[in-house]
Specification:
Membrane topology: Multi-pass membrane protein
Structural class: mainly alpha
Shape: globular
Number of helices: 20
Low-confidence stretches: 493-516
Order of helices and strands: HHHHHHHHHHHHHHHHHHHH
Largest sheet: none
Subcellular location: Membrane
Family: Belongs to the sodium:solute symporter (SSF) (TC 2.A.21) family.
Helix content: over 70%
Number of domains: 1
Protein name: Sodium-solute symporter putative
CATH topology: Sodium/glucose cotransporter
GO molecular function: spermidine transmembrane transporter activity
Radius of gyration: 23 Å
CATH architecture: Up-down Bundle
CATH class: Mainly Alpha
CATH superfamily: Sodium/glucose cotransporter
Distance between the termini: 47 Å
Mean pLDDT: 81
Length: 516
């Protein structure tokens, strides 16, 4: 096993390098609050794809797909996970172009929902978005803490604190500009490191032929693409990931950061194509660990690390430590920025003409508070998959009504809100995690069906979609989608640059007179 001191040394070195790169890159580029939270029209196709890959491929990729393969249905479950991870990226090709058409100066998903529906739906969507991002932060911290605890006995609270602290430094300083740049660097390291790590583990376990033969003899159901529990898992994961991704503010930021519509389409498409094989490879190692009988007393959430421990020498696990740190850093900075951008955009509407410095200080302060809470939860060691499923249910019950208003002028706030709440209630009635407590309720409890994730997510999405469409059909109103543009505006003011690293030129002008 790698020593705790060595693992911590590698972790701090990697984080310090990312922090230095993020701060150095943003010193002369992050000029105003607009740059801080949107980096508008700055990312070409390659940069868009890279930042989507890094921000979406967090440390969970080393846990959840392998856990799905080892504990939820083998290849069928892993395939569903891979598809579910790609579908939201493909969905945003259409959604993103439409957002840029109607909200050319947009910053956040809450701006859209407030302008399109009103205050009540805004509050509901804000709750889902912040809750999802908090859970994602906590899950990322949990994944990193679990990984380093397994590899080198690093106490979880130390891992979570170190990662959260370093990421806060460069995201608090450079905002989305720093995040997109470090994402690009991380992608260039993560993809080859993931590929080499997976290949080395397969070779260490005896090669594909030997692995397949051993699993086929001992646990053939793990290789059965028609295995019903695996198909059910894959089905609800597609709905779950798609629903929650719509409320991932990091995705919305990258829609507005893309240089143009073509860069957006190509960038999101490339990210979808790259994501699928990475999920499959991670999941297959979980299948291998379970199929080869390597799990022992270990839980399915650490299946990939069980395979690594069986296949690689101790020194090689240092590469895994680097991989874990890079993966969790890439998603953590995205979520920190996502929270900051929502707060900043919303405060500009709530407060009476706030200046840029007020907006940035408020955004940074809330980001620190959320980061501390996520670090605390991440140190507890909860199941990464269960944390995500809890947040996913809210998104699954709401994303179709939520996006319906972007394509139909007949969707109304009342109809969308009622459809979303009804879908959530149906999902909760089936949701296994809460089922024991719910069936104990008087009167209602005995009437509830059995717990089932596929029924929970399919029911939540299906009921909310049908009710949203029905409510729109019954509506007489027509919302002018072109009016959305009037609801949002640039957050820059005449006060000039506010970033610590912003450097005005000699003419003393605002953002237009700044060196890049």
């Amino acid at each position: 096993m790698v020593t705790t001191a060595l693992a911590l040394g590698v972790t701090v070195t990697v984080l310090a390098a990312m922090t230095a790169l993020g701060v150095a890159h943003s010193r002369t580029r992050m000029l105003s609050v607009e740059d801080y939270i949107s980096a508008r029209n700055s990312a070409d196709t390659g940069t868009t794809a890279a930042t989507l890959i890094a921000s979406g491929m967090g440390a969970w990729i080393l846990f959840s797909p392998a856990e799905a393969g080892a504990g939820f249905g083998g290849l069928a479950a892993v395939g569903g996970y891979a598809i579910g991870s790609a579908v939201p990226l493909l969905l945003f090709i259409s959604v993103g172009v439409r957002l840029r058409e109607y909200l050319s100066q947009g910053h956040s998903l809450t701006e859209y929902v407030y302008g399109r529906y009103g205050a009540w739906m805004y509050g509901y969507a804000l709750l889902i978005a912040v809750f999802y991002m908090f859970i994602s932060l906590a899950a990322g911290m949990t994944a990193a803490a679990d990984a380093l605890a397994f590899v080198a006995d690093v106490p979880p609270w130390i891992t979570a604190t170190i990662i959260g602290g370093f990421v806060l430094v460069y995201t608090g300083y450079g905002g989305l500009v720093a995040s997109i740049f470090t994402d690009t660097v991380q992608t260039l390291v993560i993809l080859p490191l993931l590929t080499l790590s997976f290949a080395a583990v397969v070779v260490g376990l005896g090669g594909t032929g030997a692995i397949h033969q051993a699993i086929a003899s001992a646990n053939p159901h793990l290789l059965d693409l028609g295995f019903v529990p695996g198909l059910a898992f894959g089905g609800y994961v597609v709905i779950a990931i798609t629903g929650s991704s719509v409320f991932n503010q990091g995705r919305w930021q990258r829609v507005f950061a893309a240089a143009d519509d073509a860069s957006l389409r190509r960038g999101f498409a490339i990210a979808a194509v790259v994501t699928v094989p990475m999920i499959l490879l991670a999941g297959l190692l979980g299948v291998s660990a379970a199929g080869l009988g390597l799990m022992g007393d270990a839980g399915p959430s650490v299946a990939l690390f069980v395979a690594i421990a069986a296949a690689l020498p101790d020194w090689a696990t240092l590469g895994v430590v680097v991989l874990v740190v890079l993966l969790v850093t890439s998603t953590t900075d995205t979520l920190f920025n996502g929270i900051a951008s929502i707060v900043t955009a919303d405060l500009s509407r709530v407060l009476d003409d706030p200046d840029e410095r007020t907006l940035q200080y408020a955004a940074r302060a809330l980001t620190v508070v959320v980061a501390i809470a996520a670090i605390a939860v991440g140190a507890q060691g909860y199941s990464v998959l269960e944390l995500f499923l809890l947040a996913d249910l809210l998104g699954a019950a709401t994303f179709i009504p939520f996006l319906h208003g972007l394509y139909s002028g007949r969707a109304t706030e009342r109809g969308v809100l009622l459809a979303s709440v009804a879908g959530l209630l149906v999902g909760l009635a089936y949701f296994p995690t809460f089922h024991g407590a719910l069936v104990a309720l008087p009167i209602i409890g005995p009437l509830l069906p059995g717990g089932s994730f596929i029924h929970s997510f399919a029911g939540a999405a299906g009921v909310s979609a049908l009710l949203s469409l029905l409510a729109a059909r019954l509506s007489d109103g027509r919302f002018d989608l072109d009016s959305l543009a009037a609801e949002v505006h640039s957050l820059d003011d005449a006060a000039g640059p506010v970033a610590d690293g912003g450097r005005p030129t000699d003419d003393g002008t605002g953002s237009e007179g700044v060196e890049r």
